[in-house]
Every structure is written in C-alpha cells, then in structure tokens.
Specification:
The protein has 244 residues and is an alpha/beta fold. The protein has 7 helices and 7 strands; from the N terminus they run E-H-E-E-H-E-H-E-H-E-H-H-H-E. It folds into 2 domains: 190 residues, 3-Layer(aba) Sandwich (Rossmann fold); 31 residues, no CATH class. It is globular, with a radius of gyration of 17 Å. The site of nicotinamide-adenine-dinucleotide has 29 residues, from helix 1 and helix 5.
Length: 244
C-alpha cells in the first residue's frame, strides 16, 4: 500500500507505543514522518526525530521551524494519571490537561497554515475508551480524553472550510510501554495483567499496530468524506455486554 506517497506527517509521541507503530505504518505506506517527542525513543530509521515538548508553546513553535510542508498530524502524545477527584491535586489537573488537551490544540494551531495548503489534510487525535466509559481511579485522565473527543468534533467543524478532516481513535487497554509501566508498579503484575485482559471482551489487550492501523485508516486520503468521527479500537469494551 502506498496511499501516503508524497505526503508528510507529524506524529507526536512517536518514540514509543502507539505513536511509534503509527510512524512505522505511515512510513511503510509512503509518508515522510517527523516524530515530535521529548525523546527519540525507538524512532531512529523510522521517523525524523524533532525534539518537542507539547506542553510548551515555545517548544512547539521551535519544532515547526523544521517543517516546510505538511499533510497529516497525528496528535498522539499524552500522559496518564491515576486517582480520584479526592486524591488528585489541582497541580495534577493542570499538568495533565496541559499535555493531553492543550497540547493537541497547540500542535494543531501551529500546523494549520501548512495544512491549509495541503490537498490531503487530516488530523487524527488519539483519544481513549475512557472518554465514554467510566474506568475506576482515572478521574483526570478520563476527563482529558472526554475533552479530546469534544475537541475533535469542534476542530472538525471549525476546519471543514479549510478542507482539514479531524477524527479520533478510542483505544481500549493497549499493550504498550505505558501499560507495561503500570503493570511494573502493581504489587502482582501478572495478576494485574490478567485483570486488564479480562476487562477486554476479547480477553486480550489491543496491540499498538491495531491502533496504528485505525489511525492510518482515518488519516488516509482514501477517507476523504470522513470527519468528526471516533473509531473504537477497544476489543468491544465500549459497546458489548458479555454475560459471565
Ligand atoms: N496504552 C493504552 O492502553 C492506551 C489506551 C487508550 C489510549 N491511549 C492513548 O494512546 C496514546 C499513546 O499511548 P502509548 O500507550 O503509546 O504511550 P507511551 O507512553 O508508550 O508513549 C507516549 C509517548 O509520548 C511522549 N510524550 C509524553 N509527553 C510528551 C510531551 N509533553 N511532549 C512530547 N511527547 C511526549 C513520550 O515520550 C512517549 O514517547 C496516548 O494518547 C494515550 O492516552 C493509550
């Protein structure tokens, strides 16, 4: 497949997990890929690393100086946060919203002048099943992903006139370094992994490649009529009710 031949993409958080798998898939299908990340991570040979902290507008502006043409933005970088509204501090709320939500606005805002010149402009945001399903002990994180879902719709509406499509993917629990870190902090990582797998109706975690494939689907010029949608990649977690 070479549907992205001649197109240029930015993937935020391309150093690891879903972002890395997406950068590799876009590259394999013909795109030139820039990975905006704090760290190069695993992207050497796959994407051009541009050091960027999406929580800081000056850093985003500096990163965009490296880009002269652009068709696709994958807003994927985010951080997790555990806790309830009782345990989360105001500082944590502001920190996580600044990265997970304002980070998307910041990167997309900087991309708009270039995207307006593209004939295949598309933005895909990595949202989460946490936007639409209550998950215990994830108050801040879930609220940020709810905001990403709403922001996707608002951006799709505002930039229809610019011919920029905006969509999002909603993964379930995906087998990435993020989840491996979570498991590493659990008192019984094997039991915790089993519990996460059991929560997925398919009985297994989602793979980073499955999410990447859905991101590429939404970013593809072949989906020219698809905007303002969210695509579940969650093993059925959002919609299915399986009797035990
Ligand atoms: N893994 C899951 O179970 C899961 C489920 C649903 C949604 N998601 C979403 O998928 C996306 C990617 O998650 P992942 O599991 O691949 O995570 P990951 O931790 O493996 O990768 C995240 C990447 O983002 C980068 N990053 C973090 N903060 C940044 C910043 N301020 N500026 C630039 N880069 C930054 C990190 O350096 C890292 O390379 C996130 O939006 C996450 O919310 C993940």
């Amino acid at each position: 497949m070479s549907e992205f031949q001649g197109l240029t993409a930015i993937v935020t958080g391309a150093g690891s997990g879903i972002g890395l798998a997406t950068a590799a898939m876009l590259r394999d299908r013909g795109a030139s890929v820039y990975g905006f990340d704090l760290n190069e991570g695993g992207m050497s040979g796959i994407a051009t690393w541009v050091k960027c902290d999406i929580s800081d507008d000056a850093s985003v502006q500096e990163a965009f100086k490296k880009i002269s043409t652009l068709d696709i933005v994958i807003n994927n970088a985010a951080i997790g946060a555990s806790g309830t509204i009782e345990t989360a501090t105001d500082e944590e709320w502001l920190k996580v919203f600044n990265i997970n939500v304002v980070g998307i606005a910041r990167v997309s805002r900087a991309a708009l002048p270039l995207l307006r010149k593209s004939k295949a402009a598309a933005i895909v945001n990595t949202c989460s099943v946490a936007a639409t399903a209550g998950i215990p002990n994830r108050a801040i994180y879930s609220a940020t992903k709810g905001a990403v879902l709403s922001l996707t719709l608002a951006m799709a509406t505002d930039h229809l006139k610019d011919r920029i499509r905006v969509n999002c993917v909603n993964p379930g629990t995906a087998d990435t370094p993020w989840v491996q870190r979570l498991l590493g902090n659990a008192s019984d990582p094997a039991a915790e992994r089993k519990a996460l797998e059991a929560r997925q109706p398919m009985g297994r975690l989602v793979s980073a490649e499955e999410v990447a494939s859905s991101i590429c689907y939404l970013a593809s010029p072949m989906q020219g009529s698809t905007t303002g949608t969210s695509l579940g990649v969650d093993g059925g977690l959002q919609g299915l009710r399986i009797p035990k």
